[in-house]
Amino acid sequence: MEKAITAANRLIVEHLELVPKIVRSLTFSYSHLPVQEYEELTQIGYLALCQAASGYDWERPFAPYARTAIRNAIYDYWRDCARQKNLFCSLDAIQADENGDASELPFPDKEEYSPESQILQKESAAYLSQLENRSRGMIQKGIVSLRLQQSGYTSAELGRLYQVPPNRVRAWQSKAKKLLRQDQELYALLA
To answer: Which residues does UniProt assign to the signal peptide (predicted)?
Structure first.
């Protein structure tokens, strides 16, 4: 029993560097990840590493097993957060109307936005149009479908529009998102 504990401890110490690597790889597209969230994910990863070491059967390599356990623990945490977010809402998000019925807070009209934000919104829309015109093939279709999806279309409707399966539309969008995430000028307009 004591040998198993020391062997598990040795596995943990040897593979500690996996946790920060996996957390970074899963969160690289989030440019403004709060420090607390990063630390929470790291802690979850370390706990998953310990659980993986304690349940390890020594018949296969540990590193791939630990990577999968850490990644799945982080995915479980994100699913749990999403589920809790759907179950609860802030009291500030609800207001009672004259009849006492609860309703959501009204969104401000476009006229209530500041002039600066309206200008930035117009510039970013114009820049997206330029990117759309400059790109070709899948990237162009991805940018167009992203803009249409912002207008309320679903990927199934876009698939019917382009006469392709919906998963192909989502693949175009994925390629376009990757390109847009790397565009510094667009990032500056949206930041």
So the answer is: none
Helix (H, G, I), strand (E, B) or coil at 104: strand
Two tokens, residue 76: 């479980």
**What is the rounded (10 degree) CA torsion for 117, 120, 125, 127?**
-170
Tell me the average confidence (pLDDT) per consecutive run of 10 residues in the chain, 191 residues long: 74 92 88 86 94 86 91 91 70 51 49 66 77 84 82 85 89 85 72 58
The model's pLDDT over 71-107, given as tens digits with 9 standing for 90+, comes to 999 999 988 888 877 666 555 555 544 455 544 444 4
Q: Between 1.10.260.40, 1.10.1740.10, 3.40.50.2000, 3.40.50.300, what CATH number should domain 2-87 receive?
A: 1.10.1740.10
Q: How far apart are CA 82 and CA 76, in angstroms?
A: 10
